[in-house]
## 1
Amino acid sequence: MTEPRWLNADERRAWLAQLSINTLLPAALDTQLHAAGKLSLFDYNVLAMLSEAEGRYLPMSELAARTSASLSRLSHVVTKLQNRGWLERRPHPGDARVTTAHLTDAGMATIAGLAPGHVEAVRSLFLDALDPDDVAALARIGEKIVSRLDTDHWILRDNTLPPA
Amino acid sequence: MTEPRWLNADERRAWLAQLSINTLLPAALDTQLHAAGKLSLFDYNVLAMLSEAEGRYLPMSELAARTSASLSRLSHVVTKLQNRGWLERRPHPGDARVTTAHLTDAGMATIAGLAPGHVEAVRSLFLDALDPDDVAALARIGEKIVSRLDTDHWILRDNTLPPA
DNA sequence: CGCGCCTGGTTGAACCCTCAAGCTTCGAGT
DNA sequence: ACTCGAAGCTTGAGGGTTCAACCAGGCGCG
């Protein structure tokens, strides 16, 4: 049983900052979104991912991957958003196990209305703290961390076609 | 009403990575801590902050600040941890409005037992993804973001004495 | 001193997430 | 065709978080 390696000064600073950001940033964005439209940051992201998808629909599993959520969590949330008329569930024609979530026109209108305020909040709470070099460094470092947390995370997918 | 400035490529990468880290990292650490001792990352941090405090106690408000939590959230959690015998509430002698949370010996033993595994998890999920320059950059950038989210955040306090 | 406001903290209800269990369908193997 | 295991998804219960309301003690000020 070896002695654990405790954190050095930089490691501790980086870790404590990450912990604080993790608590404060979603809380602030949740507050803004809740005031603007009674939805959470996670709800918003579900709608946003669908709005950017081809045909404005995605299988539940793919939507779960793109929001870093469990299928269970997503299922509950989709039910809620469905009750508000912002999306629908449909069976997938090719595979009867698959359910797809479709953004409705009302859902599209909702997110289109919310987006400017949300982007403004992301800027003012997060990006405006940084100069362009910081943003580039953070993108690079952030993706390293993501790849350690989930090797196959969707944001790491390259969009080139696989070799023939 | 001006057109919102949408995110450029680096901004989008940085933001999406931050979002994913925000979801995946606490989830992974919660899993490890829950397996090791049926507590959450937040519970752990409450105990950790107390264990590092002088006298192993802090006023509720100060503890809330050091865990980036609302007083309400903290109050519920302290009740839970108190029921497990890991800490106690006591009135503050100087100001009857103040409650202090004290780490018990049992609480100290708990966190001492958990710490090596937790630190190891933080390393393997987070720090080990990065080289020392990355860690230093992340510490610097992270503190910039924290200061924008909360100007008076405790991790930004300098420990030098105020001018006479 | 007495009024009002602020600070520190608690509580209960509503809401959200997690976890485990379970259902249906697909696909591989025989 | 049949079986079995895995994939995709849903559900309900239990526990955690948030929000608004509330209480009590301190502080300033006339």
## 2
Amino acid sequence: MNNILIVEDDKSIHNILEEFLTKEHYQISHAYEGQEALLLLEKNKYDLILLDLMLPSLNGEEIIRTVKDTPIIVLSAKVSTIDKVNCLKLGANDYLTKPFNLEELLARIKVQLRSKTNPTPSLKYKNLELLNDYHTLLLNNHKINLTKTEYAILKQLLINPNEVISKNKLLDLISLDTPDCDENSLKVHISNIRKKLKKYSSQNYIEAVWGIGFKMS
Amino acid sequence: MNNILIVEDDKSIHNILEEFLTKEHYQISHAYEGQEALLLLEKNKYDLILLDLMLPSLNGEEIIRTVKDTPIIVLSAKVSTIDKVNCLKLGANDYLTKPFNLEELLARIKVQLRSKTNPTPSLKYKNLELLNDYHTLLLNNHKINLTKTEYAILKQLLINPNEVISKNKLLDLISLDTPDCDENSLKVHISNIRKKLKKYSSQNYIEAVWGIGFKMS
DNA sequence: GAAAACGGTTAAGAAATCGTTAAGATTTAG
DNA sequence: CTAAATCTTAACGATTTCTTAACCGTTTTC
């Protein structure tokens, strides 16, 4: 049975959703404001989050930023494109404007749960292990803190560690996280990653392929 | 670069989408009706499909049912929940109603393409194997390092190894990588490639066709 | 048969790319 | 609002790659 966390300050919407989704055999958990949601998310594992953006204490976007390994469907009264794009960029998987239709919500929930059957394992290469928390890299059992961009770059390199990835493709793949990153910026990030790796290993893990891009080595 | 197939009978929408998505560095393919789309999908690999439901000959839903390993975003004028739910149930990954906002579409495209890589097959000819994803050339199991231009030239020759390719056409095809390359420069590159091949094989792989261009031999 | 065009090789100078650093701008956290 | 962290920009030297131009032998043209 799939476990869905509803984060929403309006109690009547909670009730409607709970009644409907329970009938569809989902297990429902409730949070009525942001801090509460973060606490629950720290302690428990959910299969999906239904998130209202307009929360009293904490901005809903904060939750999107924090949650990385659980699909999020945003439910919001904001209909503007900017709001939608922002949420999706931040990491949300879908966006529905209120008032929404329950059948459509159900269908979209199923889409998210369908593609979620294979949770991404941590990426490993030689003595490197990139954890799923979006900023930690293990090298010879040493924890290395990576910035958001460094993590995104290393992740792309580690997905296919033997393949060369062109600079343009790399920039494109990380463009959601860092839209302003260009080739110059990229080489600085690569340099910074190498510097961090050098602390715990003399091996050169990132190899430049002249004129093309980079690969693991 | 990601390859997007647009399936849509309205030509003006094609143009709008192509112009916008090309600017965002996507490669666009077009299909104007269902059968055409199915043919293309059989022959080619796409990273994403933008699908209009109201196709003249074939129902768009047929395409959703057929496609299994490529994410689909449905673009439709149908706003009814039943239609949306049907599509999502059938296997679509997202659903946008016309008229849609291009920025929102882009954000939703990126959600679907997140951390998606597509391996490309290698080009083989006799004892040569050009590994696309590794950006290296194998000759009798020896790894040969090629420069960007050398790689581009050899790739074009190997795509149709039995056909003669004229110097002008060759220069045109690699002009994206090396805009300054002329005939003189080309023959130097060919010479350099031959020199590298000579190290591991006595065979002459690149043959000059007098007055025309080059072919594999 | 002589002149012109073409193909192949070579070497040197020009151009592009990489890696690093530091400073300024921007974002994030407290 | 301030301080810290992160990102971008720009410069530099080192290295690799590319183009240019010369030379020579072969093929084509006249």
